[in-house]
Amino acid sequence: MSVTRRTLLTATASGTLLAALWFVPSANATVEAGARPAAQDAAPAAEDTAAGPQLAETGPGVDTTPYLIGGTALLGIGAGFVAYSVRRGGTRPVV
């Protein structure tokens, strides 16, 4: 496979991936008008009076350890693939 065709294939694949990720929904958590329980309607909290969208309540004890371990592992695997490709590729004569 020629270098030009391989570059075009890589650019097409990355463009397709970016276009697909464009449609991934964002994590905007807002309270809908009819979704509140009756207990909260009687005595609204001080933070409910703020205008605009509100983020989801996560609480004080959010465990992010699995995300850190998974992200670090995937970053290491990606760096390993890059190092392997650079080492294997070397310099090649232009044809």
UniProtKB/TrEMBL annotation:
Source organism superkingdom: Bacteria
Q: Where is the signal peptide?
A: 1-29
Bilayer-crossing regions: 67-86
Keywords from UniProt, A to Z, are: Membrane, Signal, Transmembrane, Transmembrane helix
In this chain, the stretch annotated as Disordered covers: 34-62
* Biased composition range(s): Low complexity: 34-54
**Mind telling me which InterPro entries this protein's record contains?**
TAT_signal
Task: Write the protein's name.
Answer: LPXTG cell wall anchor domain-containing protein
Its source organism is: Streptomyces rhizosphaericola
**What does the record give as the organism's lineage?**
Bacteria, Bacillati, Actinomycetota, Actinomycetes, Kitasatosporales
